[in-house]
Amino acid sequence: MERLQKMLAHAGVASRRKSEQLILDGKVRVNGKVVKELGTKVSQSDTIEVEGVQLEKEQKVYYLLYKPRGVISAVSDDKNRKVVTDFFDDIDKRIYPVGRLDYDTSGLLLMTNDGEFANILTHPKFEIDKTYVARLKGIPTKEDLQKLERGIKLEDGMTAPAKVKLLSGDKKTGKAIVQITIHEGRNRQVRRMFDAIGFPVQKLSREQFAFLTLKGLNAGESRELTAHEVKLLRVMAETGKRH
Q: How many other C-beta atoms are found inside a 10 Å radius of the C-beta of residue 61?
């Protein structure tokens, strides 16, 4: 299910704000009935008309992008910085990112025009594992990493327990490579978790989302998800099976 104004915007009818005004003005019908409530939820099976014209149901598409560093996880940027949709100039659908990766974080990002799919993968109650590899300043001890495994207090509350593994540590350079798996999606969460134990992140990449990996892709490249992968992601989110 998706908010009506959001579906109108994604379908290219108008901006989100203008779509809301169309609803308030009584110009939108759902299954033959005028709808004026902005919070109304609709699904792909509903028939939607705008000013008497039926909304065409856009074919749903699903992509896996290897987002490079220095790219915004958005469809546009007021500072004219590169955004993730710039890598899909040949796609005629209005796609957008599922969740986000920070500007200075690279790695696996899903792209779609399916709002319901995006919602179940990003909603806090649907726990999907996300695995990152971080290069740290300093070499954390086993005890340091256990703090993250148990959950650590940040300014916005305790984190859920994480899975953490030290991949390498170089005493000469004073740097470490650590793998961490979380299922939450707070803003800059991984960086803040390592900051909290005193080991700032110098470089960060998301290597895995559920069972999906970056195998076969270089930074800036993408591939379409298979129908089986899309179905499996839905099942994992809805059943709570994170692996």
A: 18
What pLDDT digit, counting tens, does each position of 199-219 carry? 999 999 999 999 999 999 999
- CATH of span 62-124+215-239: 3.30.70.580
Catalytic machinery residues: 102
pLDDT digits (tens, 9 = 90+) for 106-139: 999 999 998 889 988 988 788 899 999 999 999 9
Indicate the residue type of 135.
Answer: R
Buried b / exposed e over 187-212, threshold 16 CB at 10 Å, is eebbbbbbeebebebeebbbbbbbeb
The pTM assigned to this predicted structure is 0.80
Domain 2-54 has CATH 3.10.290.10: yes
Output helix, strand, coil percentages for the chain, rounded to the nearest 5. 25, 30, 45
3-state SS record for 192-231: HHHHHCCCCEEEEEEEEECCEECCCCCCCCEEECCHHHHH
Reported confidence tier of residue 9, pLDDT bands at 50, 70, 90: confident
Q: Assess contact for 176 and 138: CB atoms under 8 A.
A: yes
Domain ranges in the chain are: 2-54, 62-124+215-239, 130-209
Distances (CA, A) of 10 to 15, 58, 111, 136, 163: 8, 9, 13, 39, 36
Domains 2-54 and 62-124+215-239 share a fold: no
- 130-209 folds as Alpha-Beta Plaits (3.30.70)
